[in-house]
Design a protein that fits this description.
The chain contains eleven helices and eight strands. It has 360 residues and is an alpha+beta fold.
Length: 360
């Protein structure tokens, strides 16, 4: 994958949404969609190991990093030399990110880190991490946090992979035992980590859905092809059952709706340096539709679903079904996404305010 990324960069296709001043291609959102559609049509390889680096670590450094940080890290993100992971979630701080407890004690030119993170995707292969720490002793909630660049090979870091239902190791626990990080690795100002983290999450939620949406359209078409090519116990093609054909029609129509929503969200964020909340609509629809598509695929497979074929993970319906449960959790749960839509797009009262009014 590093090699593939280097080739993409050599051809001018790495960081397609990054400003050209930072080595990107400066494509507008609609042009990015065209790129992803053509990439999927051509059967380009899955490059999700680079998604943290290219979708949000790089854009965060462009937005808030120092000139030195930008000069050192950005080219190595673009050419695939560096893989990044995201160290935000902790056992007690997922949806409620402001509950972060992982501690960074500042002394001289270093921050000494102690604590742990969880659900860190790709930590076992990552070179660097977006690490959010509590650097102000005794600070509460959003205050006193810092966003730092953590070199994953620093002594004192232990990475423990977590096995998922599909048998893969998508996520890890990461433990920090007196890990010394140079103060120069703070992105933005010390204590300003919440603001920087919100920019990172806006990049993550705002635009990184485009590639996933294109892949889901392809999945629905593959499911359709499966229903045409497969016969049931009665010898008839699955697609000839009106109930199956009807359900597939609905799934295809919803995938089409999702495509329109993606175009709309991408078009709206055309002039925003940091994407707005509209991408959350697409991310929510995408995650829930993905689960429905694979649930229906499993129903069509019947007992055949108990056998996992040798097909690669990205196109294996059984493994994708098992992994799809995580789609409504990772990157923000469906409930949290609905809260964002309610509060930031529809302008409804904040859920905290509503909770205060509910009978005890
Ligand atoms: C595949 C995958 C990859 C991930 N990768 C990373 C990564 O690379 N880096 C990283 O830092 N994290 C990562 N995560 C973690 C992810 O961000 C968290 O799992 C997610 O934010 C939810 O947090 P939690 O698991 O602590 O659940 P909790 O926040 O404890 O939520 C538990 C339940 O309560 C609900 N809930 C919580 N708050 C509210 C609310 N205010 N209103 C309504 N309902 C609420 C949730 O919807 C959920 O159903 C990943 C997770 C998955 C599944």
């Amino acid at each position: 994958m590093r090699e593939w990324n280097a080739r993409l960069q050599a051809g001018g296709w790495a960081g397609i949404n990054w400003p050209s001043a930072f080595g990107g291609r400066d494509l507008k959102p609609m042009q990015q969609i065209i790129w992803y559609e053509e990439y999927a049509r051509a059967g380009g390889p899955d490059s999700s190991a680079f998604s943290v680096a290219q979708s949000h670590a790089g854009p965060t450094l462009i937005q808030a990093g120092s000139a030195e940080q930008q000069a050192f890290y950005l080219p190595k993100i673009l050419n695939g030399a560096h893989i990044w992971c995201q160290g935000f979630s902790e056992p007690g701080a997922g949806s409620d990110l402001a509950a972060i407890r992982c501690r960074g004690d500042v002394s001289g030119d270093f921050i000494t880190v102690n604590g742990s993170k969880i659900w860190t995707s790709f930590a076992q292969g990552a070179d660097f991490q977006e690490l959010v720490l509590r650097t102000e002793p005794g600070s509460k909630r959003h205050r006193g946090l810092s966003w730092v660049i953590c070199d994953m090979r620093t002594p004192g870091i232990t990475v423990r992979p977590i096995r998922s239902m599909d048998g893969e190791y998508h996520n890890c626990e990461v433990f920090y035992d007196n890990v010394r990080i140079p103060l120069a690795n703070v992105v933005g100002r010390l204590g300003d980590g919440w603001r920087v983290s919100m920019a990172t999450l806006a990049f993550e939620r705002g635009r990184s859905f485009i590639g996933s949406q294109v892949r889901l359209i392809g999945t629905v078409e593959r499911l359709l092809a499966f229903a045409k090519a497969t016969r049931g116990a009665d010898g008839a093609r699955l697609i000839d059952d009106p109930a199956v054909a009807g359900r597939l029609g609905v799934l295809r129509a919803r995938a089409s709706g999702l495509k329109s929503m993606t175009y709309l969200a991408a078009g709206r964020s055309l002039n925003d340096a940091v994407p707005g909340a509209e991408g959350t609509f697409v991310a929510l629809m995408l995650a829930e539709l993905k689960q429905e598509v694979y649930q229906f695929w499993m129903a069509l497979l019947e007992v055949r679903g108990l056998e996992v074929s040798a097909a690669p993970h990205a196109i294996n319906p059984v493994l994708q079904y098992l992994f799809s449960f995580a789609a409504t959790i990772g990157g923000g749960t469906s409930e949290v996404r609905r809260n964002i839509i309610a509060e930031r797009i529809l302008g409804l009262p904040k859920h905290d305010a509503l909770a205060a009014e509910l009978p005890k």
